[in-house]
Amino acid sequence: MKKTFCTAIVLAAGSGKRMGTKIAKQYLEIDGKPLLYYTLLAFERSLRIDKIILTVGSEEQISYCQETILRPYGFQKVASVITGGKERYDSVWMGLKAVKDDLPKEAAEGIVFIHDGARPFVTEELIQRGLDCAKEYQACAAGVPSKDT
Known about the structure:
Strand content: 15-25%
Structural class: alpha/beta
Mean pLDDT: 88
Distance between the termini: 48 Å
Radius of gyration: 15 Å
Order of helices and strands: EEEHEHEHEH
Largest sheet: 4 strands, parallel
Number of strands: 6
Strand order of the largest sheet: 5-4-1-6
Number of helices: 4
């Protein structure tokens, strides 16, 4: 039986305008590492994820990500870094096209996880639950209950 091939598209093309900083939030540092590092690490460590496609906002950001995040921290599952689009859905579309172009022939079927690069708290449990749900219903949207603060 062939394995379900799982690809994560990590969206990091946002500019963070609403946050009001000069640096997009996915590149802000937490404990000396960009926020995006922690998001990528969750998918890199997951036994369920085979490949990661990273969408960024510009050609310059491709180089930035490769030189300051991917190479220094040894990310192996990031198959490609591509430019996204003007809107989130454009970046999703670009990522989906990259998945389609690079799906291995031996993959019987594939599941795509789409995740925001500025949301680093994805867990292995959430990935597994998403995978189970997608297999059962052919689609899934993960969510967590909001907390009233």
